[in-house]
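Human: If only I could read backbone structure tokens as easily as an amino acid sequence. Take your time, and here it is.
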Amino acid sequence: MSPVARTTIHYGVAVALIGALATASLATQPRAIRSDDETAPHGKLAKGKFLVASRSVVNPTFFEAVILLVDYDARGALGVVVNRPTAIPLVEALPEVKELRRRKDVVFLGGPVARDRMLVLMRTAKEPPDSLLVFDRVYASGSLDALRNSLTHGEGVRAFAGYAGWGPGQLDAEVARGDWLIGPADSKALFDVAPNAIWDDLVARFTGKWTALPGARFADAE
């Protein structure tokens, strides 16, 4: 098991509701139509990369999903879907974290695996305790102390129930099949852009084609 997966927060509040929301949400997703001009995936798989579901993906679990890879090596890969917010306040899932009581953070559905576990992404200039650097100033952790530290001193927090996982070579095969576009992650997409806009914008960025209304939101992203 990935070291990231081993350190996720185990929590008991709102787990059943999160599962119900996921089932309802995914059941109503429209089916994608394969595009004849779909650009082939590019870039190399690595920690700190975005995986953007191509227009050929019809599996409702990953339909129009954007995944941040937080771990990738010869043993497999682990990531979280960053554009599936729920209506569940994070404070309801983690009531013991008093720093959340005046905030409006919600729980995101991170993936189909281990939805009774929570992984937190934090944007902060200083490394939080018990955390893993994913890419520039963005850390992953399953530590409540790290979460509290980032709520007080950080610049953004996202909490994910569950994650997406792949065994050795599995994700590589999906990329070779054309399921995923690959590109560098950036913190603006994670913390500053509305979740329902992320997929359209990244498809446009990684393919050079707009799939929805034009308007580059990442013009200054590196």
